[in-house]
Design goal:
This protein is an alpha+beta fold and 185 residues long. Helices cover 35% and strands 31% of the residues. The radius of gyration is 16 Å and the shape is globular. InterPro entries: Acyl_CoA_acyltransferase, GNAT_dom, MshD_Acetyltransferase. This is N-acetyltransferase domain-containing protein.
């Protein structure tokens, strides 16, 4: 990564920009790339609950959660982000929510994909997760039709261990649960 782009941990001053990036990349990925016809009311409900500046502010003040972002310093713009913390929102029997880590979100803007930013960001967040959740596993969920994402995560040691349904507003989607053992687990 050259001097134009930096990966840094987000702070409270970034919540508005993260909220905007989160909503933009969600629409790009799911509505445009995967052609999911979410009703606008369901998207707005999801964004209000799980992508608002207030929601991101709660991430920033939680001692076991973090948001990482890729910043384009030349254009003063964000191009990607990841959220990490305790695994407490995936329904799977082997999860110990306070001891297991979660890669909660991982998005790169479409116009910056396939340039190595995802590889660099995942290396940073996996290191953080292994430092903060060293004795158990790291989990994530991925949309069942996101084959490129599944291949990417598999490359980093994640294995599919289950499936579940989740909601965007009232719209039900299907996801895969993936698990990565930490070096000490």
């Amino acid at each position: 990564m050259d001097n134009q782009f930096i990966i840094r941990r987000a702070d409270i001053s970034d919540v508005d920009a993260l909220s905007q990036l989160s909503q933009m990349t969600f629409r790009e990925t799911f509505v445009e790339d995967f052609s999911i016809p979410y009703p606008e009311k369901d998207l707005q409900s999801f964004f209000h609950l799980l992508a608002s500046p207030e929601w991101f502010a709660n991430i920033m003040v939680h001692p076991k959660r973090a948001a990482w972002m890729i910043e384009d310093k030349m254009n003063d713009d964000l191009i990607g982000y990841a959220l990490v913390g305790p695994c407490n929102n995936i329904p799977y029997p082997d999860i110990y929510s306070d001891e297991d880590g979660l890669l909660n979100r991982f998005f790169i803007r479409r116009d910056h994909r396939n340039h190595g930013f995802g590889r660099q960001l995942i290396n940073v967040v996996l290191l953080w997760l292994e430092e903060h959740y060293p004795t158990r596993a790291i989990w994530l969920s991925v949309f069942s039709k996101n084959f490129k994402g599944q291949k990417f995560y598999t490359h980093y040691g994640f294995k599919k261990v289950g499936e579940y349904d989740y909601f965007i507003g009232e719209w039900k989607d299907h996801g895969f649960i993936m698990k990565r053992q930490t070096h000490t687990s």
